[in-house]
Amino acid sequence: MTDRLERQFAFLNEADRLKQILRATTLVDGSRVENSGEHSWHLALYALVLADQAGPGVSIDRVIRMLLIHDLVEIDVGDVPIHSRNGQAHGSEATQAAEARAAERIFGLLPPDLGESLRALWEEFEAAETPDARFAKSLDRVQPVMANLMSGGGTWETYGVTYDQLEARVGSRIARGAPALWDWVREKARPRFG
């Protein structure tokens, strides 16, 4: 039991580092950028509050668990914004490989049964093929959109994002897991782009 607790607390202490990872997205008031720990918490709250937007068969408990761990790999890799132009492409093979190495290290801190379970949940989120993961991915895309809308454009202005880019990079992911939610968000976002 002592070794198990040592490993559990090693993981929890490592997870605390997620609070140090700054994201491109600001808080909704635009006062500062959020950190990845705040983002993960906010997404779990999104899942709880927007559960009525989930499709049939979606387990909100599983979605919340996914969202709490989905960005832990950023401890090693950092945040790679979806609209970034800094050479590190969101979703690129290099980024995916770095994230896989980070997942191996971070989830490997845990006792094997727990580490394998959480790693499988993270991989399910990344693949976005199950109803739970598609809904979780939708929320992961909605939250920054709402932050940009509330902050007067936020990182959309910083990265020169166009409506077509938003539709292609974000809208398709949201619509895949929460179509009615994307319809509502799109109506809010469209006027922002003129």
Automatic annotation (TrEMBL):
Residues 15-182 form the HD domain. It holds the Pfam family HD_3. Transmembrane segments: none annotated. Keywords: Hydrolase, Metal-binding. This is HD domain-containing protein. SUPFAM superfamilies: HD-domain/PDEase-like. The lineage of its organism: Bacteria, Pseudomonadati, Pseudomonadota, Alphaproteobacteria, Rhodobacterales.
